[in-house]
Design brief:
With 176 residues, the protein is an all-alpha fold. It is 61% helix and 0% strand. Helix 3 (62-85) runs antiparallel to helix 4. GO terms for molecular function: dolichyldiphosphatase activity. This is Dolichyldiphosphatase.
């Protein structure tokens, strides 16, 4: 078709402001390669929730269900805390809602702690392999936490509070 774009979806009222779907909308300074890499790292929690749901549906193992349930309960706890604390983000134009505590940091903190404890108590493999996987999880968690501060979505204190909440809500797979 000549003459421009054709939209075959819902209707748009003239003069209405469009809103982007914010689930994967991260901003970084143009030309900042570190910012771009950290913006991508901020997507890890989304990838991980898809992975967790896939594991639960395909393998039907209790550990996957515990991890997914823990992550979802942690997100709910985070939302409640945000409504109680009501601390703004450092830059109001970045992100929706309150910034304290960081849900990304809390999500990754819970994942790191759950993974470390699960490997320690439930997986029979050599110690070196366990430590390599545990350190990989820590690196992912640190990248996500750092991305939130570097990109201006949270303060260091908001990220630290998210990790602290994850630590507080942790439970090992064997109940300890």
């Amino acid at each position: 078709m000549a003459g421009g774009n054709v939209h075959r979806g819902g209707s748009f009222a003239a003069g209405t402001e469009l809103r982007s779907f914010g689930l994967t909308h991260f901003q970084y300074n143009d030309g900042d390669h570190i910012g771009m890499a950290l913006a991508l790292a901020s997507l890890f929690p989304i990838f991980m929730i898809v992975m967790e749901v896939t594991i639960v549906l395909s393998r039907r193992e209790i550990a996957g269900l515990l991890l997914l349930t823990g992550q979802l309960l942690n997100e709910g706890f985070n939302l409640v805390l945000k409504q109680i604390i009501r601390e703004e983000r450092p830059y109001l134009h970045l992100g929706d809602g309150y910034g304290m505590p960081s849900s990304h940091a809390q999500f990754m903190g819970f994942f790191v702690m759950f993974s470390a404890m699960y490997l320690e108590h439930q997986i029979a493999t050599n110690v070196v392999q366990k430590r390599v996987v545990q350190m990989g999880a820590v690196v992912l968690g640190v990248l996500v936490a750092a991305s939130r501060v570097y990109l201006g979505y949270h303060t260091f204190q908001q990220v630290l509070a998210g990790v602290a909440n994850a630590y507080w809500t942790r439970r090992s797979p064997n109940g300890s």
